[in-house]
Amino acid sequence: MASFDEILSQKTIFRNVSVLSPHYVPKELPFREQHITEVMTVLSPALKKQKPRNLIIYGKTGTGKTCTVKRVMEDFIKSGNEKNTRMQYVNCRIYNSRYRILQKILKGDVPELEKAGFGLPFLYEKLIETASSGKQMIIVLDEIDMIKDLDELVYTLTRSNDEIKNGGVTLVGISNRLSFKDSLDPRSRSSLYETEMIFQPYTAEQLQKILEQRAKEGFEDGVVEPSAINLSAAITSQESGDARYALKLLNKAGEIAHQNQQKKVTDKDVEHARKKVEMDLTMETIETLPQMHQVVLYSIGTLAISGSKYSRLEGVDNNFLFSGEVYEEYEKTCKRIRKKARSSRWYKEYLNDLEVLGLITTTLSGKGVRGQTTLIRMDSSPQTILPILKKTLFE
Question: How many C-beta atoms surround the C-beta of residue 369 within 10 A?
Fold first, then answer.
């Protein structure tokens, strides 16, 4: 059996593998300099003890939204006074309710929150008390649309400013969906009073520059062939313009080359990495979905295997399912796991989220079908996805 010393002494084509991680925030973010300046401009009043406007940032996965905000956070924390300002990041896939988010952002100020049993009114009063000490609190909610009781949270945070003296609470929301605000009720929407920013997907040329930057820091000199970088950028651009995908592709290609004891990362390695990365990203996405999203996806997969009862109708592609039958299956699955099924309004939101994540495709029914309904198709193999969902939901 090999020791750590033996493993660490082996030659490797990698210089710093962490640089190739999608979570790494480089000192320079190519093609996002203007976005960084805009975010800093919106939030800068907090450094003068004034409340900034709320900010909502939109863009598909892998367009640099989170990296940009984290880069701004670094400068904000350096420039600010801890007594008067705070900028706090919250991953809403993990902290996905109003209670859990309030608990997280107040943990440093209220030591007794380590103990359980405090209700929402207590948390709300502590929020008012903390901000009223003269503190400008900027709360970054990444993947804000994953919060279960989003309306209540938005209303709580925005309206808290009516009671706060001296300080303030500002919300920075990051969403993959341009239609995010449509899911809010009118009261929450009107209370936001926000600035909006949209991040466009990276082009092939931009992805190429990003990969060149990371390859220079992440690999030893001359290891990655230029054609491998070009191919990674081209594949990603055709798929989505997702920089995270491009980085995973290059990283996986490097791992394949290393395992084969090659001195170079080539086009062939990128091609081999492609299928593995697509599956890894799909699995990662599914495992981190909120439970109700998983139930809907499981229902789609179950029907995709058993077959639609409407598949013989004229005008319906055999690969598509009717939204109504998927909802019926969703209700059945909720009963199996002893959870209350959400309304059809929420169900439609879950479908939207799953489509944004690239797990399903939806389309409106065309001619040949009486009335008009939404047709749904799973984009990955249900035989591959269902075992993961079964383990998560039923074990």
Answer: 16
Does residue 155 sit in the same domain as residue 47? Answer: yes
Distance (Å) of CA 391 to CA 8, 105, 279, 319: 36, 32, 17, 25
The CATH number that applies at residue 220 is 1.10.8.60
Q: Is residue 153 domain-shared with residue 253, that is, in the same domain?
A: no
The last residue of one of the domains, among 240, 272, 287, is 287
187-242, pLDDT tens digit by residue?
888 888 789 999 999 999 999 999 999 999 999 999 999 999 999 999 999 877 89
Say what the pLDDT of residue 271 is.
94
Domain count, the chain: 3
The answer to whether the CB of 362 falls within 8 A of the CB of 264 is: no
Mean pLDDT of the chain: 88
5 located within any domain: no
Same domain assignment for residues 163 and 215: no
pTM reported for the whole predicted model: 0.78
Using a 10 angstrom Cβ sphere, with 0-12 exposed, 13-18 middle and 19 or more buried, the burial of residue 113 is middle
Burial of 372 (0-12, 13-18, 19+ CB in 10 A): exposed
Cα 43 from chain centroid (whole Å): 22
Residue-number span of the structural domain to which 317 is assigned = 291-394
Token representation of residue 190: 């009107």
